[in-house]
Amino acid sequence: MKHMTIWVIDDDPIYQIIVNKMIKKSELFLNVLSFKNGKEAIDDFKKKLEEKETLPNIILLDINMPVMDGWEFMAEMVVLKEQINETIQIYIVSSSIAVEDKNKAKHYPEIVAYLVKPINNNDLTLITANY
Fold first, then answer.
1. CB neighbourhood size of 113 (10 A)
2. Which of 84, 85, 88, 86 is nearest to 60 (CA)?
3. N or C: where does the chain have the smaller number of CB atoms within 10 Å of the terminal CB?
């Protein structure tokens, strides 16, 4: 098991259960945290940053969510990146196959890849291999 923390940011509770089980079963990550929207995640991120707690190594980010969507989350991360001293790899994981979304993801150097739901064990293995 790698000593990595992964965050799943997605508003679909069924998808979260499935992905969390898959991640835990894979034994590729030490910690898994889930958030139902970008605001919950960014608030926790800011708190961890302020309190110098462990930040996620990898974030699986959905685009379409209520309260704060994936793009709004990314805008916040861009503002915070000067305060971050470690590499955080962000993967967009979305059911959207819109070319506009895929192109928008390319404008963020923090986004490693755009994956279409559902992700599988091979995706998790590739994600950890890239870290």
1. 14
2. 88
3. N
- If you classify domain 5-119 with CATH, what class do you get? alpha beta
Strand-pair category, 89-94 with 5-9: unpaired
For residues 103, 106, 110 and 113, what is the CA-based torsion angle, rounded to 10 degrees? Answer: 80
Res 29: pLDDT: 87
Query: How many angstroms separate the CA atoms of 14 and 125, rounded?
Result: 22
At residue 7, what is the residue type? W
Q: Which residue, chain included where needed, has tokens 């790698």? A: 2
Segment (H or E) for 122 = helix 121-129
- Map residue 9 onto helix, strand or coil: strand
**Ranges of the chain with pLDDT below 50:** 1
Q: Reduced to 3 states, what is the DSSP secondary structure of residue 108?
A: coil
> How is the chain split into domains, by residue range?
5-119
Residues 6+ apart with CB under 8 A from 41: 7, 9, 35, 59, 73
Q: Which two tokens stand for residue 114?
A: 């755009």
The answer to whether the predicted template modeling score (pTM) of the entire model surpasses 0.85 is yes
